[in-house]
Amino acid sequence: MALTSTMYALQVSLAHVDRGVYESLDFRMAMHPSESPEYFVARLLAYCLEYAEGIAFSKGVSDPDDPTVSVRDLTGTITTWIEIGLPDAARLHKASKAAPRVVVYTHKDPTVWQRQLSGERIHKVERIECQVLDRHLVDALVDRLDRRLSFDLSVTDGELFVNVGGETLTGSLVPISLAT
Which DSSP string do the residues of 12-28 spell out, in sequence order? Predict the structure, then answer.
């Protein structure tokens, strides 16, 4: 018998000062059985950090050619392609050709990945944005995961402040370059 996804009901009060985005988000998010809790939290944070009109999660493993998270305009055209983790060069190449903006959020150490991508053919690699999520923050959020989760997320000068259950967690968002 196949395992099913676990649904999470999330309420996020978002104050992204760096982007001027202030929203109350109320949405559902599925964690696929093959997805690690760390990846799930990274995907959740990426969604919040990139929140804009037209943002959506992909349909999951049934659509591996789609971005993990995307922002589409009113015509359905992808304006921002968002990847989580350490995508390979072919995926980044495809993303960069398909969307004017590509962002990668990783919760893993990117050192080896950057070396692997060095010299690979990636369309407009210099335009691809990559943000490294603070591993301690990701782990702390994993420890507090609940099927019904409410938290406040504030972002100022690349610093993340998450208030969950009366406790404030902090972490940095560190930009790195994929261009050599």
Answer: EEEEETTTTEEEEEEEE
